[in-house]
Amino acid sequence: MRRLIFLFMFGFVCFSPSNCFNEDENINNNIIIDAPFENFEKKFQPNWKDLDTRQLPKWYDDAKIGIFIHWGLYCVPGFRSEWFWAYWKGGDKNIVQFMNNTYPPGFTYQDFAPMFKAEFFNASEFADLFVNSGAKYVVLTSKHHEGFTLFPSKRSFGWNSVDTGPHRDLVGDLANAVRQKGLKFGVYHSLYEWYNPIYLEDKKANFTTRHYAGSKLWPDLKQLVNDYKPSVIWSDGDWEANDTYWKSTDLLAWLYNDSPVRDEVVVNDRWGIGTSCKHGDFYNCEDRYNPGKLQNHKWENALTLDLTSWGYRRNIALREVIPIERLLKEVISTVSCGGNALINIGPTKEGTIAPIFAERLLGLGNWLKINGEGIYKSSPWLSQNDTFNDNVWYTCKKQRYNYQKPTAKPTEVDIVTAIYAFFLKWPTNDEGMLVINDITKHLQKGNWQVVLLGNGEPLHWETTVTGKTKIYLPRRERVNSRHAWTLKFTPV
User: Fold this and answer.
1) pLDDT at position 297 over 80
2) Is residue 41 part of a domain?
3) Residue 40: its pLDDT value, please?
4) Which of 31, 134, 144, 480 has its CA 20 to 30 A from that of 76?
5) What is the CATH classification number for the domain harbouring 216?
6) Domain boundary at 316, 349, 374, which?
7) Are residues 308 and 349 in the same domain?
8) For the chain, what is the domain count?
9) Do the domain assignments include residue 50?
10) For the chain, first and last CA: distance in Å?
């Protein structure tokens, strides 16, 4: 039987005590759960204290899964990584030997540009793959540290994909294609450029001059925003100078106040020395960041299908491609802890995606078709990784979105409509029984139905005197998912 608990001080009604949680000592009872989105009402000042008060646009937290694309001239040699030029200039022995064995004497990095033809690039086929992967947004490298842009930069004459190589606006082509499929589009942009002479002069002056920031960085970023209206700006290459040199707070204040994407855009945390994991709409903290525990701020795990490189490598081995089981674990644990998963691929110089990468993305997409209910638009639950069975991770669905703190655990004013338990390994006992711990006390508070997503029929379950929950699973050969599975708990 349901009963109403009126919470007059909050102005909410909570249905069923099994949906009203107040068991975490870090919960702030005064938090505003369903405050309106107020970014458009505020004029942000160009300082971190004020910029950090911006609410995260809800679309980003709902999306959970994105595709990252590292594409540039480094895919032409297709060797070592996207840092090929810097390693070569730095005297890396393997790269020097590779160049001596593969290209004629006097060959320069600039000579790769005409060889980057992207003749087989079909933006619609890319978009179809990304949709079928289950991703909700796409982030393309508009410019990596090499300085070569994939759009017709007005400040990169002759060093962009329209003036040479493909003779195409790759940013524009992909932006149009993915938006036609209903996905959000964003751009990665490196603040610095390894060998740009204007930047090197500023660096030589210990960044007391800002000629590069004013004449190259700002114009490029404003062109990207005004021409392509990205929903994500993924900044990088910030670590050599403070944010004052990059004029980061001025840029973000313009982005949030006056740009054509001010209400939708999200940015990461790489805006100068010391800004990582401190400022931005979401945090990256470091490459392949996955802390394995709930974070106080929205974050993102940028990971690669190629375990050693972000850019395409012609000599990649199968053992160096992330297995689907590990990819699913990364996605599940990331979302459970309040993060998004941004999954990177590196296309070839011909403009294709290696079949092994496509296979991994389609495998993820097939899994999400069955289990995505517990991923998309989910919220962290009271527990993330089960304390008894570390192969089990949790998420939940709430009726109200927490604009003030998207990664917060449910409070006593939340109405939790479902709890999801993802398990990465199928039980090996004869009974096909999964044993978990952290949900037991909540199951004991009311009547619950448990189903395996993709199968539908309610499962038999019971709690034990030792505080465990036993869930009796169907025969594995009758189950649709192959690599990871999701239990849905709903109060009845």
Assistant:
1) yes
2) no
3) 58
4) 134
5) 3.20.20.80
6) 374
7) yes
8) 2
9) no
10) 9
In terms of domains, do 132 and 183 share one? Answer: yes
- Asked whether residue 339 falls in the same domain as residue 237, the answer is yes
List, for residues 360-378, the tens digit of each pLDDT value.
Answer: 999 999 999 999 999 999 9
Residues 18 and 113 in one domain: no
Residue 384: which domain range? 4-30+379-491
